Amino acid sequence: AGVNPRQCPARLARMNILGIDVGGSGIKGAPVDLEAGDFAVPRLRIPTPEKSSPKNVAGVVAEIIEHFREHLPDGARIGLTIPAPVVHGRVPFIANLHKSWAGLEASAFFEDFLGRPVTLVNDADGAGLAEVHYGAAKGNDGLVIMTTLGTGIGSAIIHRGVLVPNAELGHVELDGHDAESRAASSIKDREGLSYKQWAVRLQRYYSHLEMLFSPDLFVVGGGVSKDSEKFLPQLDLKTPIVPARLRNRAGIIGAALAARDADLHPDTV
Ligand code: BGC
Hints:
Elements: H1 9-12, E1 16-22, E2 26-33, E3 38-39, E4 44-47, H2 54-67, E5 78-82, H3 106-114, E6 118-122, H4 123-134, E7 143-149, E8 153-159, E9 162-164, E10 173-174, E11 177-178, H5 180-183, H6 185-191, H7 195-213, E12 217-221, E13 241-243, H8 250-264
Parallel strand pairs: 1-5, 5-6, 7-12, 12-13
Antiparallel strand pairs: 1-2, 2-3, 2-4, 7-8, 8-9, 10-11
Helix pairs in contact: 2-3, 4-8
Bound molecules: beta-D-glucopyranose (BGC).
């Protein structure tokens, strides 16, 4: 039976919420147990359609919802991350999916397409929220900068547990270039850089962020963070820099957290 979350917020803390993480190469989802801060059942991953238009992506999202139907309350809100800023439901620009996302009222589009409430959040913001709640930045009371190194570079700024949304620090200018076009892990692969060569670029990048923000902690996520011992020890920074603990689970868990927040505090969304 369906649960109306607005009528029973206490129940909301215990039920599973579906989180879906839309990336450049895969769309991944799982019902999340927010008490445990982990998947309630194993995730499902479907490759991102070659033409990654909003409609094609929404089709895959619908498939993932259908797959987990028996684990979820009917018509419940889902959380969805996308690799773009989301400003009051609208995507102002897109770097690593089909260009037709730019300018889209994406929240409204997904709610129409899926016929249920959807909370849309930037992928790195979602990952940052998850790391602060359950992972590498848990309990940190200062300024945390989460970066995800993948197809692009995502970022989240979190101060004393509060997210400043839509920081796009992957696009700061570095030596005359868009930073992610020099230092994302996809560039390491594309240019065949060794970890040592790549670390030189990461050093430039993180020193620049350190100078701009004076953070208390850098958290480094993205698939490559599983090999963090090959590059993080090579960086010389004043700020502690640690690998993400939730790895590739962070986006899905963060999406679910954002969806729960939207139901618990509808006035602040
Ligand atoms: C996008 C960000 C996103 C990041 C990681 C960047 O190109 O502009 O919004 O968080 O890639 O996916």
